[in-house]
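ok trying again, last paste got cut off:
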Amino acid sequence: MHLLAIFLGLVFAWSLVSKRFERSVLTAPIAFTGAGILFALLAPEGELSRASQEQLLRIAEIGLVLLLFADASHADLRVLRTSKSLPLRLLSIGMPLTIAFGVIGALLLFPGMSLWEAGILAAILAPTDAGLGQVIVNHPRVPAKVRQALNVEAGLNDGLAVPFLLFFMAVLAPRLGDGSATTDPSLLALMWEQLGLGALLGLAIGWGGGKLLAIAHRRGSIAAPWQPLGIVVLPLLCLLASEELRASMFIAAFAAGLAVQIGYEHAPKHAVEFTESWGQLFNLSVFFLFGLVAPLAVPHLALRHVAYALASLTVVRMLPVAAALLGARFDRSTILFAGWFGPRGLASIVLGLVYVEQHLHTSSQYELRLAVIATVLLSIFLHGITAAPGTALYARRVRQLPPEAPERAET
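nice, full thing came through this time. structure:
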């Protein structure tokens, strides 16, 4: 209760001064992560035991379920239909390459890590977090197509990272027992439960719930204040139903967000209404609790963990982005801008916790966890601090480009 009261007090205090920090280097994730770190360092011994791993996981799971649903529900899938679509390039080319480069980096820096563990680490750190770069996606001087590409990419790549993570964990699990091959029947069963069943469950809940909301809307039987609540119940139903059926709640929530648009055209607006308030509260709680955990890991960080974190935020991200944008005729400043501003945040924290919950006891499990913590911690502060000045610098560069440059063409 004491910890919850401190967090709620911080939320209230931040709300009072939030306008002052909208475009400053002090972002909300930095403030709440920093507050968690400070509390962890100053709290009496034993005070943090109340924030158990199970509590952290549950709060984080709810936050990511809501985020995945909201992102998928207001993702304009029309922007992915053309071969020249920047989000499509980043998702279909950039993301698989990011995971591949992440695997290579892990194998080089952690010699004792297996291929499947390296895949888990790369999948956890593949999704980006638009919440850490709100200054970028909301800045009017950043070209609209660049803002849209980064926003859509961040909205969809967390959901797309989940199948990779589940696959690597499913392959690794039987190898930890008797060394059985990856063709073990349990692998196929697990993949069906987690991916197939999760997707079908999400599609059914999203489409069915959307249809019922659309009928109620046409008949005028649903009051306006209840429409956002009716929408947000759907991902929570996905969470509960997935736990009963042993399906992936994240796949289900993401599929439901895509399907609800088909059943109810006003769903995206109401999903955004919720995530801008209550959804933000869940997100900030995850960053605060991450700050509580981080000081426990920092003393154990070695040069190899920091090196992997820096590589993950730079070459592992930037080279795939450059490859994805080949032929699009963008200026080098745009490629660097899109490559650098791929922050790791909420999704990586939660996917890391999902991995921890599986209790896959391997020789490199602590290396993997420390690498994730180092990467997210550096990303929160480095991307937060560079967002405002980096955006201003890029905006000045765009103004100097010729009128025929792709950045200056209308979306």
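cool. The chain has 16 helices and no strands. The longest helix spans residues 185-219.
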